[in-house]
Amino acid sequence: MHTKLFIPGPVDVREDVLEKMSTPQIGHRTKDASNLQRGISEKMQKLLYTKEMVLLSTSSGSGLMEGAIRSCTLKRAAVFSIGAFGKKWYNIGISNGVQVDLYEREMGQAMDPNMIDEALKTGKYDLITVTHNETSTGVANPLEEIAEVVKNYPDVIFCVDMVSSAGGHKIKVDELGIDIAITSAQKCLGLPAGIAVCTFSQKAIERAEKVENRGYYFDLLNLYKCILKRDYQYPSTPTLPHMFALDYQLDYILNVEGLENRFERHLQMANIVRNWAEDKFELFADKNHLSRTVTTIKNTRNISVADLNNELKKRGMMISNGYGDLKEKTFRIAHMADKQPQEIEELLDNINDILKI
Ligand SMILES: *Cc1c(COP(=O)(O)O)cnc(C)c1O
Question: Where does ligand 1 bind, in terms of residues with CB under 6 Å?
Answer without folding.
Answer: 8-9, 60-62, 85, 131, 133, 135, 161, 163-164, 184, 193
